[in-house]
Each structure stands twice: as structure tokens, then as C-alpha cells.
Design brief:
Helix content is 53%, strand content 12%. It is built from 33 helices and 22 strands.
């Protein structure tokens, strides 16, 4: 086995090429933090695997290796008997002068590494696939490019000069040669080397496709093709007949609708926006935290049609998710945007960034429904990722809204066309430490009219932006749509037909089930941050004020619970200390801070407290079960674990519906048990399986934790009190009277949360009461169930609140 050394000629060539690379290239890595996200061990030797022979690419990789303190690819790797190269090219580069021997050379290097590991069991070299992309512009239909493929080096040099700032380096998961060499005992080393080389070649090819995306259409040609299709031809003829107009006029109406809807995506607009947003995020935010993106990249590489379904809390969501996806090496999606955003100049800009516009209602307009459904299906068929906000509009409360299922149903109908590409739905949690529209949301919840979006409003808002803290994009667990249907509708393929307009009996209930599943997975990916943690505690304290010492103590308790008993595997909790998180939140100027000889006091003004409920509500679902445990222990002082769990199980179906929790009954029991043990570790209570008792020395901390469930339990108490008094009350009357009493409670007892009496919240509650058998379709109450729930609820509600509820009937 020969020893590898770099010749003086190679050293000279690398030194010369490195000059323009350093000057022209500024590569961004994918993922943005490859060491942590890919668990790369910097202490082990690394063999860098590149797709094809390019010294420019290797030097770009080398510059990032220095940045992340990874081993230098130009240094050899010492084995027991020799030195091997620390990089290899899987294939020859483009061009007539490229050596065809490169493929065999790469196989020989892999073979040498496998042999070296067989000779030295302690050796553990990581094989790290890494590729460099100058520009990620997709091809366009019907457009021929002048190719410089025959002059590979020249082409690469020109790309480096003109696209050096538009360069991305993609790191992939490492493969351990130590593990590979174990397979070589039962498999021929040469065959294994060839297989690894082939796998790497396929990997790089799929990776490139996932990053660049499908060919862009000529927009007008695509629209004309849709108009000529059988589905829209029939819809146009029906429109002409029903409205007694000419087919030509109906055709023009359909074309006008398509032009109103369709995106006009351009890579140039995307690149310009990338530069602008990079500047804007660095000015406005202190950073963006992205988690669990790797499974999404894998889906894209495997050819899945991806549908992103993020929560919707701000207009920033449109830009933020596309920006993050682009920086994560994925193709930004085509985005369903409300027609209200189609104003100049935002509309044309959004359209070029992939936005397609959708009217608020399709009701009564069959032609528009057909046009929109055909356009959406065309996006899927062509392989474009799609994004739509399943809540329909922005949440004014910070909680997830009930899902709107129209787009989701159309997605399933697209699958019923027999589309061969698998569709995967990706729930996405988007969170902020400051949301621009929060003050507006609060006014709207209290009755103010919704303001129409405009250019001036956008410019004015932008210049007000400052100190926005961190942004969070957490990708949830993907839902493969085919597998979901296989599980819930085993015979769904029998409904496949080419037009995709069929509405089988199972479509509506299955769509509703899928929608709830998406919402639960969004909440399972929630991000705890400094702001929503501080707000949760301050809003739960008396007079919305705490000493800094107490605030940090309660933050420590919450962080301990959230870290030791995580809500889900994908929810994120910051690793920083309570002190560090508080200082970060303090810098955003949301709190009133006063100081005396005994230290600082942190408080919220009444006006600010109303606004801060939005951030608290972002993570309310993470804290609701711990909070109810605290409430039950505080009110009963002594209770068995079994009885505590039974009470929580009684509330749980309503809470699950209200806050989109994902636990089934067994998961909930296990979760509650672990929370009780965690409370005991903090000395908040004394625990044995037979008896849980309150620790009076820690009662103040438990009270703050328990206060987080006050609003929820009080809403339940209102509705159940009304039901018990009048079991024949109609659902609409129950919803209306519950809201009126809640509004009165809000005034009399200083409840600062505007969503406390929100119509949507009570609508969800009343629907859940019907689903759980407290009401039936004839609005007749189940008296025994109502009495049991009332008996459970009333000890947990403050006596003065109960009195107000009773007096309000």
C-alpha cells in the first residue's frame, strides 16, 4: 500500500487557485451548524468525499473546515502502515481534459481505507460527503443555455467569479469506515468499494435535485395548458351554460382567475430577497434557531412532494420559512397567500417569490373552485413544494386556531388522481420573541376593526422594528399521506380517478382527522424561549410582579420540568440558565424594572400584560398538564396518585381539543406520573404512590405554576354551570351565554387575556362537549357526566369567581 503525499506541483496549483477562491467565494454551509446538527466528531479523522474532480470545490470545503475547526482535507490521514489522502472525488469533472480514471481511483482509495480498518481495529475514519454548489438556479422550460461543459475548469472558474457569493456547501451525515469494514468480512472488498462509490454518486445526484428543484415553466404556456385540460373545459362549459354567457367569455373569466391566482416564481427575485432578508434578519433578530430540518432534506432527496403546513402568527411567516428552507438547502415552496396581500408592490414581489393568491371564500363559485384545484394539482404534478397555513389566517391569541380543511382536502384529491409521487405533509412550528402585530391583535380581539394591508402600513411597521430577539423554525414529524390513508382508509385507492374531483364518503372525516393530526404535530414541535417563559411566570404571579430572585427561581423550576419531562421529542427548550434567559428577555424592553435596597422588581403594566398573553399562549399547551397537577394538589392538599390521574383524565378530552395535545390515555398517564416525580424532585410536593401531599414551604412556587390553568378551568366552569342549571340549553345559546359571562369575569376579576372570552375558543369548547357526550345532537345534556365534571371543577375554582358565575346566570 503506497504512502500518499502531495507533490510540490499540486501544492503550487492549490496555492494559486486559493487566491481567487478567498477573494471571490463566500460559501454558506448547509446545514447552518453542521457540527451539531450532523453530530460530526471533530476528534476523529475525516475523509471528505466530493462528487467530482474540482480543486476549486475542495478549497471551498477547506475554508469551511477551518471555520468549523475540522481536519484539513489537504492533510493526509495516518493509518498503521501508511498515509492515505483525506479527500476523494467520486467521479471525473466535466470537460474534455478530465481524466476518466477518476472513478477507478476513488474506488481504489475506498478499498485502501477498508483494508486499513481491517488491519487496525482502533482506526475509525469518518467518511463525510460534501458538495459545493455555485448558484441554485433551476432550468426553465424551452430555454437553451450556452454550455461550457467541454471546458470544465473554465466553466467552474467563470461560475466562481459570478456566483461566488451565491455558493452553498452541503455537508451530509458521516459514515464510519469502522462499521463498513465489519461488512467486508463477509463481502468482497472490491465489490464493497464499488457499492459505496455507487451509493455516493446517487446520493449527490439526488441532493442536487432536492436543492435546485424542478424545471420552471413558462407561466402563460402552463396556464393555457390548464385551460385546455378536460376538467377546466367542462367547468367553463358549465359556467357558460349556468350564467347564459358565451363559452369564450367564460374562458376569459377562467383565464383571469388563473392569472389572479398563479405564482410567477423567478430565481433572480429569490436571490435578491435572500440578500435583503439576510441584511434584515441580522438587523432585526439576534438569530434564527432551526431544528429537525434533516428529515425534510431526506424526503426531498427521496423524491417526495412536500407540503409545508406551518402555524400562522405573523406576516413575517411567509418570508421566514422560505428564507430558512433556502438556507437549509431546500427549494422554497409555492405559498398560498391571502388575496389581501395582493397589493402593489407587495403582490408582484410575493408572486415572483412563489406566492399564489387565494380568495377568502370559494362558496358559490364553482368555476373558481375548479380553477384553483387544477392549479394546485398542477403544482403537485410538476413537483413543486407547496406551503399553506392550515389555520386559514393569523392567530390573534397566540394559540393554534381550529384548522381550515379546504386546501388539505384538495391535497388528498390530488393524490386521488393517481399521482405517482408520494406526498408528505410537514407540520412547522414558527415562533418569535416579538411579533410585530401583537398590539393590533389585542385591539381586534377587543372589537376594533381589522385594518386593510397597505404599502404605507408595511413601510411604517418596518421602521419600527428593533430588538426582536430570536426567531424559531421547528420542523415537526412529517406525515406521509399515502401511509396515513393506508392506515385510516385501507381501500382509498379504489377512489382514484384522473380528474381528482371525486368526493368519496370517507374524504371529509379523514381530512378532519388529518387536520387535527397536523395541529398536534405543530404543537409537539413548540419552542420555549426567554420571552414566553418569562411572560408565563409574570402573568401567573399576583399583581404581575416578582422580585428578580423569585422570578429566576420559578424559571429554574419550569426549566427543570420542561427539560426532565419533555412534552415531546421535537419540542425545544433553551440550554441557557434562568439568569441568561432573563437578561436576554430584559433587553427587549417589555418589562418594568424598579430597584430598591433589596434588589430588582420585575413587573408588567396592565397594558403590556394584555399583549404578553400572546407569547404565553405560544407554549400554554406545554404547561397546561403540569399546571393542572399543581392546581389539584394545592386545592386538595392530600390526594392519591390514582385520584389525581383520574381527575386529569376527566379534563383531558376537552383540553386535548382546546390545545391540540397529542397524548392518548396511556401516554397521558405516563406523562403525569413523570411530572409528579419531577415535582417531587423539586420538593414542590411529597410523593408516595398512595399519597401526594403539598409541601407548604414551596407553596408559592406551586401557586405560580398552577395559575397557568386558571383561565382554562374557569371557562369550563362557566359552561358546565350553565349546563347544570339548564340541561336543555341549545349549543348556540350555551356558546353565547358562556362568552358573556366570561367577558364579565374578565372585567370583575382582572383577567388580562383577551382570548378568555374569544368566540372561537368557546366554539371549540362547545363542539368538544358534544363530541364527548355532554350534549347530543338534540342539545340534550348528560346530567350524570355534567354533575361529575362540576364536582371535579368547583374545588379548583376560586370562590369569588364561582360566586360571579352563579350570579351571572
Amino acid at each position: 500500500m503506497s504512502t500518499w503525499t502531495m507533490s510540490w506541483w499540486d501544492k503550487t496549483v492549490f496555492s494559486i487557485i486559493n487566491i481567487p477562491v478567498k477573494f471571490f467565494v463566500q460559501s454558506k454551509s448547509i446545514p447552518t451548524d453542521p457540527i451539531d446538527e450532523l453530530n460530526i466528531d471533530k476528534t476523529k479523522p475525516i475523509l471528505y468525499v466530493l462528487p467530482y474532480n474540482s480543486k476549486i470545490d475542495l478549497l471551498v470545503v477547506r475554508s469551511l473546515c477551518k471555520k468549523y475547526q475540522l481536519p484539513d482535507p489537504l492533510d493526509g490521514i495516518k493509518t498503521a502502515s501508511t498515509v492515505l489522502p483525506a479527500f476523494l472525488y467520486i467521479d471525473k469533472g466535466p470537460g474534455i481534459f478530465a481524466s476518466k480514471k477518476q472513478k477507478n481511483k476513488s474506488i481504489e482509495i475506498i478499498k485502501q481505507y477498508i483494508t486499513a480498518h481491517q488491519q487496525d481495529p482502533l482506526l475509525d475514519v469518518q467518511m463525510l460527503p460534501v458538495s459545493v454548489m455555485f448558484s441554485r438556479a433551476p432550468d426553465k422550460e424551452g430555454k437553451k443555455k450556452l454550455s461550457l461543459q467541454v471546458l470544465g475548469g473554465t466553466r467552474k472558474f467563470i461560475k466562481m467569479l459570478f456566483s461566488g457569493r451565491d455558493c452553498y456547501t452541503r455537508f451530509s451525515n458521516t459514515v464510519s469506515f469502522k462499521n463498513v469494514s465489519l461488512s467486508a468480512h463477509t463481502e468482497d472488498v472490491t465489490k464493497l468499494s464499488l457499492k459505496l462509490s455507487c451509493v455516493a454518486r446517487i446520493h449527490f445526484s439526488k441532493q442536487r435535485t432536492a436543492s435546485v428543484g424542478p424545471t420552471l415553466p413558462v407561466r402563460q404556456q402552463m396556464l393555457n395548458k390548464l385551460l385546455r385540460g378536460p376538467v377546466l373545459t367542462n367547468a367553463i362549459n358549465e359556467e357558460a351554460k349556468s350564467k347564459n354567457i358565451s363559452v369564450d367569455k367564460a374562458n376569459k373569466e377562467a383565464l383571469s382567475m388563473l392569472n389572479e391566482i398563479a405564482a410567477n416564481f423567478t430565481y433572480r427575485a429569490l436571490k435578491l430577497t435572500d440578500y435583503v432578508l439576510t441584511w434584515a434578519w441580522s438587523r432585526l433578530y439576534q438569530g434564527l434557531k432551526v431544528t429537525n430540518a434533516d428529515p425534510i432534506r431526506e424526503l426531498a432527496q427521496n423524491g417526495h412532494e412536500i407540503v409545508y403546513t406551518p402555524c400562522h402568527r405573523s406576516h413575517m411567516d411567509y418570508l421566514l420559512l422560505s428564507y430558512v428552507l433556502y438556507r437549509q438547502g431546500l427549494v422554497p415552496p409555492h405559498i398560498a397567500a391571502g388575496i389581501n396581500l395582493n397589493f402593489w408592490p407587495a403582490g408582484p414581489i410575493f408572486r415572483r417569490l412563489g406566492a399564489f393568491f387565494i380568495r377568502r371564500s370559494f362558496k358559490g363559485n364553482k368555476l373558481y373552485t375548479s380553477v384553483f384545484r387544477e392549479y394546485l394539482a398542477e403544482l403537485f404534478i410538476r413537483g413543486y413544494a407547496v406551503e399553506y397555513f392550515i389555520e386559514g389566517g393569523r392567530s390573534r391569541t397566540g394559540r393554534l386556531l381550529d384548522p381550515k380543511t379546504g386546501m388539505l382536502m384538495m391535497t388528498i384529491q390530488t393524490l386521488l388522481r393517481g399521482n405517482p409521487r408520494p406526498i408528505s405533509i410537514v407540520p412547522v412550528y414558527i415562533g418569535y420573541e416579538h411579533v410585530l402585530e401583537v398590539a393590533t391583535y389585542s385591539n381586534e380581539l377587543r372589537g376594533a376593526a381589522k385594518k386593510k394591508e397597505s404599502l404605507w402600513q408595511t413601510i411604517k411597521a418596518f421602521f419600527k422594528l428593533k430588538k426582536l430577539g430570536l426567531g424559531y423554525v421547528n420542523f415537526g414529524q412529517p406525515i406521509p399521506l399515502n401511509q396515513f390513508l393506508n392506515k385510516h382508509v385501507p381501500d382509498w385507492r379504489e377512489s382514484i380517478e384522473p380528474t381528482g374531483t371525486a368526493r368519496p364518503n370517507w374524504l371529509t372525516p379523514t381530512t378532519n382527522l388529518l387536520a387535527k393530526n397536523i395541529m398536534e404535530k405543530i404543537n409537539s414541535s413548540a419552542a420555549v424561549n426567554a420571552m414566553n417563559l418569562c411572560c408565563s411566570i409574570l402573568l401567573a404571579s399576583q399583581q404581575r410582579a416578582l422580585t428578580k430572585k423569585r422570578l429566576l427561581e420559578y424559571m429554574d423550576h419550569m426549566l427543570f420540568i420542561l427539560r426532565n419531562v419533555p412534552y415531546s421529542d421535537l419540542s425545544t427548550v433553551p440550554h441557557k440558565s434562568a439568569e441568561e434567559l432573563f437578561e436576554h428577555a430584559k433587553a427587549m424592553d417589555k418589562f418594568i424594572i424598579t430597584a430598591d435596597d433589596m434588589g430588582e422588581i420585575i413587573s408588567l403594566s396592565q397594558e403590556q400584560a394584555v399583549l404578553m398573553t400572546f407569547y404565553r399562549n405560544n407554549i400554554q399547551h406545554l404547561l397546561i398538564i403540569p399546571s393542572i397537577i399543581g392546581r389539584i394538589v394545592l386545592k386538595h392538599n392530600r390526594i392519591s396518585e390514582q385520584e389525581l390521574i383520574e381527575q386529569i383524565l376527566r379534563f383531558y378530552p376537552l383540553i386535548k381539543s382546546d390545545l391540540f395535545l397529542y397524548f392518548d390515555e396511556e401516554q397521558l398517564k405516563d406523562y403525569v406520573h413523570k411530572l409528579i416525580l419531577s415535582f417531587a424532585d423539586l420538593n414542590l410536593l411529597n410523593y408516595t404512590p398512595e399519597r401526594i401531599t403539598l409541601n407548604y414551604l414551596k407553596m408559592a412556587s406551586l401557586q405560580v405554576l398552577a395559575s397557568g390553568s386558571n383561565d382554562t378551568l374557569q371557562r369550563y366552569a362557566i359552561s358546565f354551570s350553565l349546563l347544570q342549571k339548564d340541561p336543555t340549553i341549545s349549543r348556540s345559546a350555551l356558546e353565547k351565554e358562556s362568552r358573556l359571562i366570561a367577558e364579565r369575569l374578565s372585567v370583575l376579576h382582572g383577567i388580562n387575556a383577551p382570548e378568555f372570552f374569544d368566540k372561537g375558543v368557546f366554539s371549540t369548547l362547545v363542539s368538544a362537549l358534544r363530541e364527548q357526550g355532554y350534549l347530543d345532537d338534540k342539545d340534550e345534556a348528560n346530567l350524570d357526566k355534567i354533575k361529575l365534571m362540576n364536582d371535579t371543577l368547583q374545588p379548583l375554582i376560586a370562590s369569588q369567581v364561582l360566586q360571579t358565575i352563579e350570579e351571572s346566570h
